[in-house]
Amino acid sequence: MHAMNEGNSEVPTEEAAAADAHRQRIFLVVVDDSPEMDVALRFACLRARHTGGRVALLYVLEPSEYQNWLRVGDLMRDEARTAAEQLLQRLARQVNEIAGSMPVLYLREGPQRDELFDLIEEEPSISILVLGASAEKGGPGPLVQALTGKFIGRLRIPITIVPGSLTEDDVDSLS
């Protein structure tokens, strides 16, 4: 729906702008410090750039094991939150350089898998989950294992799993 102004140019109405935003493909990447996350992030950025989409980054602060020690737990939580915010800001600059737009940032506290499911349910604009799979002997990683196993039925969106062994050139040629 577009409204016409006096010059006969189309001006989007609020409803049309909301519909356009809802149709925009949002690629969600779960942030951690693994090398495979870097590969998944590059893939998501390039797919967003080539499809007119956008990247979203989710960092989940896991509950501290020192919750019973209030002061120690609070200090560790504050330090972890500051480090997470700094990492998200650094990655946001990287996303902006590659994808050409600033990402949506989410910082949550709780069990990672639960927070991921909650975010996907709360944000209907998220349309694709992009995860990196570890190339190590231990398997693809706990989140990839869980989401391709017994929890796959809980997702309302597709998952793209990017092998963590891909080089930048490999990812560039795929996107």
CATH superfamily: HUPs
Number of domains: 1
Q: What general outline do the C-alpha atoms trace?
A: globular
Query: What oligomeric arrangement do these chains adopt?
Result: single chain
Outline the low-pLDDT stretches: 1-12
Helix content: 40-55%
Q: What is the C-level CATH assignment? A: Alpha Beta
Instruction: Write down the secondary-structure element order.
Output: EEHEHEHEHEHEH
The radius of gyration over CA amounts to 19 Å
Termini gap: 32 Å
Q: How many beta-strand runs?
A: 7
User: What is the count of DSSP helices, taking H or I runs of 4+ residues?
Assistant: 6
CATH structural architecture:
3-Layer(aba) Sandwich
**Main sheet: strand order:** 5-4-3-6-7
CATH topology: Rossmann fold
Largest sheet: 5 strands, parallel
The overall average pLDDT, rounded, is 86
Describe the structure.
- It is a single chain.
- The chain is an alpha/beta fold and 175 residues long.
- The chain has 6 helices and 7 strands.
- Strands 5-4-3-6-7 form a 5-stranded parallel beta sheet, sandwiched between helices. Strands 1-2 form a two-stranded antiparallel ribbon.
- It is globular, with a radius of gyration of 19 Å.
- It starts with a strand and ends with a helix.
- The model is unreliable at 1-12 (pLDDT under 50).
